[in-house]
Amino acid sequence: MTMPNSKVTVSAGGVVLNAQGKVLVVNQRGSSWSLPKGHVDPGEGPLEAALREIKEETGINQLEFLQTLGAYGRYKIGQNTGEDKNEWKVLLFFLFKTNVNDLKPEDPNNPQARWINPDQVEALLTHPKDKAFSKVSACTLNDSHGLH
What we know:
The protein has helices spanning 46-58, 121-124, 128-145, and strands at residues 7-17, 23-28, 32-34, 37-39, 64-77, 83-97, 112-116. It is an alpha+beta fold. It has a single domain (7-145), classed as Nucleoside Triphosphate Pyrophosphohydrolase (Alpha-Beta Complex), CATH 3.90.79. Strand 5 and strand 6 (83-97) form a beta hairpin.
């Protein structure tokens, strides 16, 4: 539940798999790790926003859409990786695959991106709700895409 004075924003992003079955994660402001995502701009749809954000945060623009994974809400990550209760985020995620392995982040606020094994994602992500979503997503990936 959001606080009465919280701003509500909508973000979209992706779980991106490469040909080796690794998952793409990004570093935000040098202090937290997440799946690539960002705000949906006015006039932009969530899928379009997810594609744009993944390109900005990783340099990857060759993505194949596989399916919609779902949505969840949480507070923004603030200073010192704590929750910033001034902003409640609704996050929408899609599943993509790519044959691109070279990562070249374009966004200076997201200076690093890396490929990691699916079983390492939950431990690396910073926000507890991101961790919980990654756990549910991993079950979806295992069931529908045969990943281990």
